[in-house]
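Cross-posting from the modeling subforum.

Setting up a comparison between two proteins and wanted a second pair of eyes on the formatting. Protein 1 (sequence, then structure tokens):
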Amino acid sequence: MAEEKRASRENLARLRIDRDEIALREPPRWRAWLLAGALVFAFCLAALGAWRATLGRTAEVHVAYARRNAPGAATAGAVLTGSGYIVTGERYVSLGVRVPSRIEKYLVEEGQRVDKGQPLVQLDPRQYDAALNQARAALVRARADRELRRKELARAEQLVERGVLSTADLDVKQNQMHVADAEVAQLEATVDRAKVDLDDTVIRAPTAGLILEKFKEVGEIAVPGGFAGSGELIRMANLEDLRAELDVNESDMARVKLGQPAEVQPDAYSDRHYRAKVVKLYPQINRQKGTLKVEVRIEDPDEWLRPDMSVRVTFLQELAPSADGAEPSLVLVPREAVRTDGGASFAWAVTEGRLRRVPLQTAGERGGDMVVSSGLSGGEALVLGPAEGLKEGERVEVAKPAAN
């Protein structure tokens, strides 16, 4: 009986939980709460710092500056725009051969600029060189015969004076002299023609320009003329008179006239603009398309412009002067700086680090800029890009331009 009681006590001892041991293994709950409170406090401090930094920070904006027209510059607004192509005033110059011969070598390459009279193609000159030498030899013989006839005529005249020779014989000698003169003249012309034929074995540029294309290979036979341009050997363009050609809708004809200023902008180089002037209005309307072909001459072309290049043409119109006869005060601003609100134009200007809303009066476009007739005097810093959230009087900071 005693042993059973002892065994029960041992079993109960095994089931008993030692609270002191648990206390040593697990931290108290107040420590966890203290750690959580510290984390919340640190987060609040960080949020407060960020909020204060946001309050003290100013918005950063990108700006461009309004430009006043230079004295004497054309103050014009855009009245019509259209797309066209670069052409030459004399169109393309197609060069062929006047004398048939084998192509010996090309002296230029496509894309090369040439001067007037510069050699372009060399043909085989041997047969024409031989023909010239033959004509010169025949001329030497004819001149020798003429000299002999002249001496015979002189002796015949002396014999007629002495009564030894009849006048009929003198007439024969005179006729022989005239024939000799004619033969010499004929052979001189033959020599000149042979010189021209020999000179034409070198094809030269009739004008300054740009080589566009070569149509035959070295070693081929080049012949004059032919069908479907088969006699064409090389093609070039005269770049001294570059023009932009485009079609204008019949309904817009009233906006275009001869002498009207224009501006040409190549699609390949959108940052380049060229002054131009309307020089040709074609006399006939294209009935199928309802358009009129117009040409504008580019005043200062450069090496960036090439024939058949696509361009955008802006027709400009001179603005009327003010009531006192003075030119209106106009400035040019980037198109991105001009905004509209309810049909009214305005711009955000930065003055002493703060935003100022400036109402504008616009007078059309000029290339990539807007012409402003009132509201700006030139030199103002205007905000570019998105303008959401901007307010009158807000402090801003002008962004520094990106380094190249």
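Protein 2 (same layout):
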Amino acid sequence: MDCNDAIHQIYHYLDGVLTDEKRAAIARHLDFCPPCSGGYHFEVELRILIAQKCREEVPADLRRRIAEAIGHELPGTDALTTDR
């Protein structure tokens, strides 16, 4: 496997959707190719960061203000009883 093949398959590798044979080929390539390995580790860290940031709760007041600004009603609220 060359770098071009490895890079084109890296997202499938990260998602775990490749066959065992293809996963092994990419793993071997990553073991011996520092540039591709660096790219792989960057993608892993990026996914971790995104997953952590996406778990944070948006404060209810901010959600309400955004909904009001774009003219949407939030689920479970009554448009007539919202304080403005």
